[in-house]
Structures are given as structure tokens and as C-alpha cells.
Amino acid sequence: MYTYRFTTASQRETEELGERFSAYLDPGTVVAMYGDLGAGKTAFTRGVLRGLGYDCTVSSPTFAIVNEYRGGRLDLAHFDMYRISSEDELYGTGFYDYLDGTMTVFMEWSENVPFAVDEDAVKVRIEHGEGDIRIIEIDFQKEIEI
Fold this sequence. Notes:
Blueprint: E1 2-8, H1 11-21, E2 30-34, H2 41-51, E3 66-69, E4 76-80, H3 87-92, E5 104-108, E6 122-128, E7 134-140
Parallel strand pairs: 2-5, 2-6, 4-5
Antiparallel strand pairs: 1-7, 3-4, 6-7
Helix pairs in contact: 1-2
């Protein structure tokens, strides 16, 4: 496992980091995202989607639980686990159906579902710094150059 650490100074820079990171994703990759409210999880995902060729509005799927994006370089399922507190609830969302290796899966609020985060998952931790600064740490199974 490799750990990479980045600092961004704006939402735009967080999105740009996500866009560059998208080049390293494959079908079946699961990305577990961690961070407080407003940390930049959705901004990072928005950048990833742009990097995958999507030109659409991207918002956190807080109430829908999952938003699907199809037709880019990779199909992506974007989950928000904020309101999920048990494996039964997670099962009811259809989450496990997305782990068939055909879609890339992004999970916001992964700290709420530790039982669903496989040890091979990419882990993205985003922390608030001073002002608009974000500290972004990525644990990944392979070497990347962003």
C-alpha cells in the first residue's frame, strides 16, 4: 500500500486533483472517502467524474443514497453512507450489487460503514486545514504520479 499526501487551497484545486487521480482508476475500483461535512469529498468526486469524461452536475447523493454515472471512460456509482448505520440498511440500498467488478464505486462517509470497506479499497481522507486549505491523503495499492 502506498500513501500519498496532497494539499489543495481551493475547491477548484481539489477538483483538479480528483481529475488527475481519475487516470489511475479501473472498473471495479472501490474508493472509500472519509472527511467531515464540507471537507471536499464531493468536490474530489466531481473532479474524478470530469476526468472520466463526464460533463454533468455532480452533487452528494445524500437523499438518493446512490447516483450512477454511465457513458464515460468508466461507469461510476457514487454512494453517500451518511444515513447508513447497519449492514442490513446497506444491503437494502443495493450496494453489494455494485461490487461485481463492472463499475467504479465511490463511497462518501465510509467511516459510517467500516464493515463495507475492503482492505483493498482505495482510501481518500480529506481534512480541513486553515481557511480553504484541504489536506488529502490517498492510500492506494499502486504507485501513482499526480
